[in-house]
Amino acid sequence: MPRFLVLAACLLLADPLHGADFPVKITAVRTGLPALDRTDNRAAIVKFACWAPVYIDLETTGNIGEAAELVIESPDPDEILTTLASPLALPESGGRLTGMLSYVRPAAGGEITVMVRTRDGGRPLSEPFRIRSLLPLDPVSYVVLTLGQPFPGFELPRPTGAGDEAPGLHGGRVHLANHNSFEQLPENWIGYDTADLVLLNTAPGSEEFWRQLFGEAGQKKRDALLEWVRRGGRMVVTVGASAGLVAELPALRDFLAFEVVADRHAGVLSITWPAREASQTSTLSGSLGQRNAEFPIARLRAKANQAVRAIIPLPDAAGPPAIIYAGQFAFGLGKVTVIGFDLDRPPFTTFSQRPEFWDWVLRDGGSSRASVGDGKPRPDSLGRVSEDEDEMAVALRTHSDTFPEVPVVSFGWVAVLIGFYILLIGPIEYFFLKRVLGRLELTWITFPLIVLTVSLAAYLTAYSLKGRVLKLNKIDVTDVDIASGRVYGTTWFTIFSPRTENYTLAITPGNGWGTPAPGSAVSWVGAARGGRASLMRRTYSYHSTDNAPAQAMEDVPVQVWSTKSFVANWSGQFDPNSATPPARSDLYHPAGDPSAVTGTFTLNLSVPVLSECVLFYAGQAFPVPGDTIRPGDVIRPVWEKPVLAPQWLQKEGGLEDVLRRVPAYADRPGAARTIVTQPTVPTTATATLAGSLPLWGLLFHEASLTYAEGVVPRNASSRRLDQSWRLHPQNRNEVILVGRAYAPSGSAAEEALSGPGAASQLWLRELPGSGERTPISPGSTGRQETWVRVYLPVK
Fold first, then answer.
1. Residue 640 burial class via C-beta count within 10 angstroms: exposed 0-12, middle 13-18, buried 19 and up
2. What is the pLDDT of residue 411?
3. What is d(CA 792, CA 582) in angstroms, rounded to the nearest whole number?
4. pLDDT tens digits for 468-508?
């Protein structure tokens, strides 16, 4: 029999689903945000380690009669297969079903499998549909998603001397996507995880889209979009000819911090907008419109008690403008920019400086420098994901995965032992049997004895070195937004398992950090390497709820004496008017001086001491009296002598110096504060701060960068956490407190990771909501680091 027939027969026998008659047929699967720019032949946009929506087309032959679910299987970077199952409502009498039905978080490669099965028993209802050509973008890519009609003539400046053949937008760094179908919008915030900036086009061609999204029927999809913004998303809203639409849609009107007044401008409108942040006085200007003609605009007036920043004021406006053409406000951790004229029709589409204005939209509406980067072309990597410009993620992963108390055997010793083992089972055994005993046939006894003895010795040696204690590291970055009554947390944690064991993992707010808000997500952390499913088919699954497709992870295998890392995005909610909220702000502007601040604030955080505290206000940073805050302390800041500016990290070494200290910090977890004196820092107070804030390169990343040649952002996968834009000198509506809570090194894991020094609780054995949480087993050790940012509104 020919070899290929034998192979085909083996494959048929190995696949029990082949040839079965299934009532459901999956005809197409599309993964990611719909691509608008097809120059790189991508139909959809996905990004490494970012959640992406999955769109399914399927057909049914009749009434199934059983509850069904859609199952997405994809490998993680450790080549372990993950499974996410979502409830699926199939047509009762047969027919077609199409739409956004699930989510996937792709690794750097590997096959993704989609299938339908029964919810009870897991009986397959369809053949597996396999995706083998998914090519995730590099994390450094900057994805701009437009909701509504796409903007014609979207163009960005080309580098000096670049010809028409220069690749893509900003050298292929910027990618465009578009959602113009209300039905295709995600129903959970993780569906927007791939996007770096969302543009909302409310122009007349998109009116029906917006009536659906901000009408009664669109609440679930609208909540998903707004929750993405609250958790650090960046959004730009354009209103011009459709300014009256805002008044007709209460949900849209309430969302915006401006009253939108419809108007028409006759003649030429001269506008001036900021240039690059390298020079606060540098501006660009241009003229929209022409004489004897008019065009629609919207005048933006800040609502009462709303904190906004004017970006494009009326021409010749003196003092803080009451009416502006473009403004900005904070929405949770996110940033919303509103522009009062349309960007998809004349006179803007004939504007001579249209590329420069779009460049400003991406920088001021999104991240200041991420969309530009180093300005060099970035050709399509065809799915080969790197970690260029993502050193923050590498440093965090290294720091979380470091257990100083677990010795690592060097490769040199391993090579020596392997060489000795080869000698033992080869020449030494032969010499002993040949020369000493004279009976070579005894190798049937001596060889297995040698193998068993060496294996047992290796196990006992590893046991004595690695131990039998469960060890965990956890890092919390927690943002407390008093205005909205929300706590937003990002948690990285790593498990060192003393035995091969499966874990159920979840993160919820710690005691005193609010009640859990819907929408938490937990997933793997890994390097950008190939992610094909392993031959042994190890698997674990995501636990889904109606509001959280990845609320927890079940049966995650961790091998003996190995580590595995995870990241969770969670949120809590509290009543800011309660007797003891996590924080209370009584700061206000004194009468007649809107630039000054007076008053007090109080923290009631569930940490014994918040140390290394710094206050940011209007582009400067100030010390906290005593450098520490305890629960219940009433703090009256002193604003006279700022100790540092946002550019305080612009010293020799810059961000690289900060990044080097992040992994090095693992050598002294929980130790007494170490003052690292930088030669360019003049004062003792500043030196204390400089030596004890190794994560500032994450919290305020772009503010820590210089504008020297070759200096580019290094936080590609953590842009959401960068709040540098709030350090603008014009932001006088809030004070930002930054501090850190310590947990002693080597503490019992339960006390360290879920006690008063932690902002979150770690679940290892059961799912949240299934009952009382089981404490982490006694004898386990943990290292906890908690970084806190509190946004104190100024009345």
1. exposed
2. 74
3. 11
4. 889 999 999 999 999 999 999 999 999 999 888 999 999 99
- Can you list the positions of beta strands (E) in 636-793? 734-741, 747-748, 760-763, 781-793
Nearest to 754 by CA among 771, 768, 775: 775
Nearest to 341, CA basis, from 365, 312, 319, 367 = 312
Q: What tokens does 281 get?
A: 């006085």
What the block records as the tokens of 608 is 């014994």
**pLDDT score for 321:** 60
* DSSP H or E stretch at residue 212: helix 207-213
723: its two tokens: 């709040």
Is residue 656 pLDDT above 90, yes or no?
no
SS3 content of the chain, % helix, strand, coil (to 5): 25, 30, 45
Contact assessment for residue 57 and residue 98, using Cβ atoms and an 8 Å cutoff: yes
Beta-carbon contacts of 449 under 8 Å, excluding residues fewer than 6 positions away, are none
Q: How confident is the model at residue 177 (pLDDT cuts 50, 70, 90)?
A: very high
- Residue 59 is encoded by which pair of tokens? 């057909």
Rounded Cα gap, residues 122 and 17, in angstroms? 13
Using the Cα atoms of residue 20, residue 24, residue 28 and residue 30 in order, give the sign of their dihedral. Answer: negative
Closest CA to 154 of 181, 178, 185, 182: 178
Pick from 666, 690, 638, 669: which is nearest to 757 by CA? 669
The helix or strand, by DSSP H or E, that contains position 294, with its residue range, turns out to be: strand 294-302
Q: Which residue has the higher pLDDT, 62 or 84?
A: 84
* Nearest C-alpha neighbor of 107 from the set 65, 78, 66: 78
Q: Token digits for 219?
A: 């609440």
Instruction: Give me the torsion for CA of 307, 310, 316, 317, rounded to 10°.
Output: 0
Residue showing tokens 């290394």: 612
Write the CB contacts of 121 (distance below 8 Å, at least 6 apart in sequence).
none
Indicate the residue type of 263.
D
Tokens coding 24? 């459901």
Interatomic CA distance for residues 485 and 582, integer angstroms: 9
- Calpha distance 245→253 (Å, rounded): 9
Q: Distance (Å, rounded) from C-alpha 777 to C-alpha 749?
A: 8
Cis status, amide bond into 347, omega within 30 of 0: yes
**Residue 749 φ/ψ, nearest 5 degrees:** -60, -40
Rounded CA separation 195/175 (Å): 10
Amino acid identity, residue 248?
A: E
Cis peptide bond prior to 498, omega within 30° of 0: no
SS3 437: helix
- For strands 334-339 and 323-331, give the pairing: antiparallel
Q: Average pLDDT in the 100-129 region?
A: 90
The helix/strand/coil state of 553 is strand
Going by C-alpha positions, the residue among 147, 220, 228 that lies closest to residue 180 is 147
Name the token pair of 355. 């590329």
Instruction: Give 660: exposed, middle or buried? Use CB within 10 Å, 0-12, 13-18, 19+.
Output: middle
Helix (H, G, I), strand (E, B) or coil at 524: strand
Residue 375: count other Cβ atoms within 10 Å of its Cβ.
13
* Residue 745: strand pairing partners: none
pLDDT for the residue 565: 95
In the chain, the amino acid numbered 94 is G
669 pLDDT exceeds 70? no
Query: Residue 453: which residues within 8 A CB-CB, separation 6 or more?
Result: none
